[in-house]
Amino acid sequence: MSTQLPSTTGLLPPEFVAFTASPATEPFWDAAREHRLVVPRCSSCGTFRLPPAVFCWNCRSLDVEWIEHDGAGDLYSYTVIRHAVIPSMADVLPIVVGVVELPGTNGCRLIGDVIGCDPESVHIGMPLLLDWYDVADGSVPCFRPRA
Amino acid sequence: MTDRTLKDRAAIVGVGATPYYRRGRSLPQTTMDLAIKATLAALDDAGLGVDDVDGFALYGGNFVDTSLLAQVLGIPSVRFTAGLTGGGGGSAGSVGLAAAGVATGMADVVVSLMTLQQANMRFGASFAPKSAGGAGAYSAPSTPEYVFSSNAGLMAPGQMFAMLVQRHMHLYGTTREHLAEVAISTRNNAIRRPTSLMQEPLTHDDYFSARMISEPFCLYDYCMECDGAVAVVTTTPERARDLRHDPVYVMGAAQGGAGRWGQAMTWMGMPDEMFATSGHRPIAKDLYAMAGVGPADVDVALLYDHFTGMVLLQLEDYGFCGVGESGPFVAEGNIRWPDGGLPLNTHGGNLSEAYIIGMTHVKEAVEQLRGTAVNQVPDAEIALVTGGPASIPVSGLLLHR
Ligand SMILES: [Zn+2]
After folding, report:
1. Which CATH architecture has domain B11-400?
2. Which listed site, B20, B31, B105, B248, has its alpha carbon 20 to 30 Å from B206?
3. What is the pLDDT of residues B25-82, one digit of tens each?
């Protein structure tokens, strides 16, 4: 499901993307590089957690399994960034930043840009599917409307 | 709970401020110069001197170096230094911390303050990594957690809080008209005050023709970026009785929040039932319990207004209206001074007087309860002050005369 994006409008300029990771989050970004979304789930109590953390917030277990998710979900909230607070981002605006709740993950949410649609058409509850934004060092989740 | 109370065990006796400036205009003064001017003004207001001060209770990280402050002021003996973690969420809580200091006997006279100069940094971009041109208060190398939001371009507080308010609009039918009411009523309070940076009325047309920054927030949904300092002096009730003004007593103080509110706007993973809130519900509960009063007893509300929409969410969290009802509540004129049932941000707030990270709200509460406010609420007896909806800790303060 790799997409060559026609322009950078609507996405953070690649030079601003960072892959700062810890041992707890590294598997997420490793899978992202292969365009796979994985969400850590506690092997002990079954609670999902995002961003990945060493400890389960529900039972403090260290045991984790990485569950693959298709990334399809509904838009939970969003903002359309119209004004460049950071001046160097002016060229890529507007950016629609979406918060998407991943079904079946006890409410884990993923944050990504919503692309491939008119910002005016974006609304909470909008069905979305996962896409990936490829930059030099890896891939970042983003979303497109789901038919 | 019965033993854990600060009620009437501390009093605010002095408040002071520098002039307020637009971002960067306070140069060539330093933040330390501003801090000292505000502190001296607050001590003078109290009728106290530098020699009386023996403690500092702060918030918002390392804005003030207490060692340098004590050195430059020449404080004879420092007995208590404390600070709330987090950011603007702790403004009201810093006075609660001062109250804790004097109530427990660790200090007699405690100064809380905020000093701010945005010449070389902008709070408006305060979460932008340095790699993205950020020079904000919190800008730092990205963390493993934070890249989950920053990689989508979420780097400014306004963009983050827009998410919470957008969801509130979706759930409850809140509209931009409701946001405009907060902006306009607050401005109407500001323009009557010489200290305010905003001196012109804000019309409905001005609001709706302003540029959109991050939907649903337009220019006038944002507070200003300012320079200046505000200091507050807290002491014991016994000591307070002999000073220049009638004491303003701490009735309740609370800080913190739900653990899973956590970093809130930089992670967006708060439990569903908390998402479209200000994070203040646990604070409100503790605060009213300690003070032994409820929302109906509050005469004037000084609610931290970094963004109009977050004022609405606080009105709900503090029980002034039902959940989801803050839009209609403000539309009915309830927050307007002087005629509304709950005059709000009578000083003009962060939105229109000056943004000193919430400390102007404490100053205004004290002036209201002394009966000396410019936009006085007649016979005000109880004031609510809140710290900024933000990552925990958030905080609140109930004061009475
Ligand atoms: Zn667990």
Report:
1. 3-Layer(aba) Sandwich (3.40)
2. B20
3. 999 999 999 999 999 999 999 999 999 999 999 999 767 899 999 999 999 999 999 9
B159 token code pair: 């963009």
pLDDT in tens, A66-125: 999 999 999 999 999 999 988 878 889 999 999 999 999 999 999 999 999 999 999 999
Q: Is A4 a domain residue? A: no
Report the alpha-carbon distance of residue B265 to residue B283 in Å, rounded.
18
Taking CA–CA distances from B263, the nearest residue in chain A reads A51
Q: Which residue has the tokens 């918002």?
A: B60
Q: Kindly determine whether residue B159 and residue A107, on different chains, have CB atoms separated by under 8 Å.
A: no
CB of A108 closer than 8 Å to CB of A49:
yes
**Domain limits at A60?**
14-145
Q: Predicted confidence band at A6 (pLDDT cuts at 50, 70, 90)?
A: very low
Report which of B395, B333, B389, B11 is spatially closest to residue B163, judged by C-alpha positions: B389
Distance CA B149, CA B251 (A): 39
- Helix/strand/coil (H/E/C) assignment for every residue in B12-66: EEEEEECCCEECCCCCCCCHHHHHHHHHHHHHHHHCCCHHHCCEEEECCCCCCCH
- The two beta strands, A138-145 and A109-114, are parallel
The tokens for A25 are 């989050």
Beta carbons within 10 angstroms of residue B380's beta carbon? 22
**Can you tell me the ipTM of this complex?**
0.94
A5-to-A26, A35, A91, A142, B312 alpha-carbon distances in Å: 25, 15, 16, 11, 39
Where along chain B do its domains lie? 11-400
B138 tagged catalytic: no
Check if B304 is active-site: yes
Whether residue B213 lies within 8 A of chain A, CB to CB, comes out as yes
B269 touches chain A (CB under 8 A): yes
C-alpha to C-alpha distance for A35 and A52, rounded to whole angstroms: 17
Candidates A111, A121, A132: best to mutate against B (most CBs of B within 10 A) is A111
Strand-pair partners of A128: A73, A145
Question: Is residue A113 situated within a structural domain?
Answer: yes
Q: Coil, strand, or helix at residue B99?
A: helix
Facing A51 at nearest CB: one of B148, B152, B272: B148
A20 within domain boundaries:
yes
Nearest by CB: A86 against B132, B144, B146 = B132
Contact B159 A111 (CB under 8 A): no
How far, in Å, from the CA of A72 to the mean position of ligand 1?
24
A chain contacts of residue B142, beta-carbon cutoff 8 Å = 18, 20
Token pair in block for residue B103: 């109530």
Per the structure, the count of domains in chain A is 1
Helix or strand holding residue B383 (H, E): strand B382-386
Task: Pull the structure tokens for residue B310.
Answer: 């977050």
Element (H, E) at A22: none
Q: How far does B35 lie from chain A, in Å, by closest CA?
A: 28
Report the amino acid identity of residue B134: G
